[in-house]
Specification:
The protein has 326 residues and is α/β, with parallel strands linked by helices. The protein has two domains: 185 residues, Isopropylmalate Dehydrogenase (3-Layer(aba) Sandwich); 140 residues, Isopropylmalate Dehydrogenase (3-Layer(aba) Sandwich). The protein contains twelve helices and eleven strands. A hairpin with a 5-residue loop joins strand 10 and strand 11.
Length: 326
């Protein structure tokens, strides 16, 4: 069975629409795509790139380069590339919510998302901390954000928190849930039977035996000991400044970082173009690009589509794996 995936461009004034147009130039055999977005914006992006675009009804099949099946979600105001308008925030969220609902109902088998501009959505009167959090709330489940490329997979115990709040958020329940969700996803979606997850400490030098903080001693290490007793393979807590050395990464299937900027800068430096953002723990696979809206590039034909291509490939693979396991 060929999985059907929802495709959400994200911020209409950013590079998302033109990346979707570039994606539509491929005739794919691994999945069928259904875009949720504004028809006029997609056509304008195609014109800016001088590429063909044939928007088809949702139930149709894309059979030629430039074909893209569309579930229309109209913007409130016309889009000017590079100039986001908060008046279109509701349409951005509507597209995301409708696509997620189709995945939850089983009509579609996975979700691929483009970049969203958080500040613009909030300026439009919608409380929004990130797509990962919104999808988790819609599905009513706990999730873990993972970013991955061909070199390393990094899962996060906490996501979009101010740094002042991170230490208070690191408790046994938070880290336990992150590890269990990551472990299950590595087995289910990645097909790794007995995964090894390296766990970073929160503090410099993993606390230096309590001299630089006690979270490792009081929270992380006791939890790891308990989960090891259940059979999970969990090296750590490890100092973050040396855990990503290539000779160490060879022994790990994933790394759990305690906060956003502890692990993601290393991943993005190691291979930004092919990196993807994966939401672990949802009842359907969701994969996103690993970059922002790039407003300064929008409408100029300069945006690299590699991350979106990789996101679709990854989501299709996960969806097929789940179908085969069902």
């Amino acid at each position: 069975m060929i999985p059907r995936l929802a495709l959400v461009p994200g911020e209409p004034a950013g590079v998302g629409p033109e990346l979707c147009v570039r994606l539509a130039q491929q005739v794919r055999s691994d999945c069928r795509l259904l875009a949720y977005g504004d028809a006029a914006t997609l056509r304008d992006a195609a014109a800016a790139l001088d590429l063909p675009l044939n928007l088809l009804p949702a139930e149709a099949d894309a059979v030629a380069p430039g074909d893209l099946c569309l579930q229309p979600v109209a913007n409130a105001v016309p889009v000017r590339f590079g100039q986001p308008d908060p008046n279109n925030a509701a349409a951005v969220m509507q597209a995301l919510d409708e696509a997620a609902a189709a995945c939850l109902s089983g009509q579609l088998h996975g979700l691929v998302t483009g970049p969203v501009h958080k500040a613009v959505v909030n300026a439009g009167g919608i409380a929004y901390t990130g797509t990962t959090e919104r999808l988790a709330a819609g599905a009513g489940c706990k999730v873990v954000m993972m970013l991955a490329n061909d070199i390393v997979r990094v899962a996060l115990a906490t996501t979009h928190l101010p740094l002042r709040q991170v230490a208070d958020a690191i408790d046994a329940n938070t880290v336990d849930a992150a590890l269990r969700i990551t472990h299950a996803a590595l087995r289910c979606d990645f097909g790794i039977a007995d995964p090894v997850i390296a766990v970073l400490g929160l503090n410099p030098h993993a606390g230096e035996d309590g001299h630089l903080g006690r979270e490792e001693i009081d929270i992380i290490e006791p939890l790891l000991q308990r989960l090891r007793g259940e059979g999970m393979r969990l090296p750590g807590p490890l100092p973050a400044d040396t855990a990503f050395l290539p000779q160490k990464l060879r022994d790990f299937d994933a790394v759990l970082a305690m906060y956003h900027d502890q692990g993601l800068p290393v991943l993005k430096y190691s291979g930004f173009e092919r990196a993807v953002n994966i939401t672990l723990g949802l009842p359907y696979p969701r994969v996103a690009v690993d970059h922002g809206t790039a407003l300064e590039l929008a409408g100029r034909g300069l945006a690299d589509p590699s991350s979106l291509f990789a996101a679709v490939e990854t989501c299709a693979r996960f969806a097929r794996q789940r179908q085969e396991a069902a």
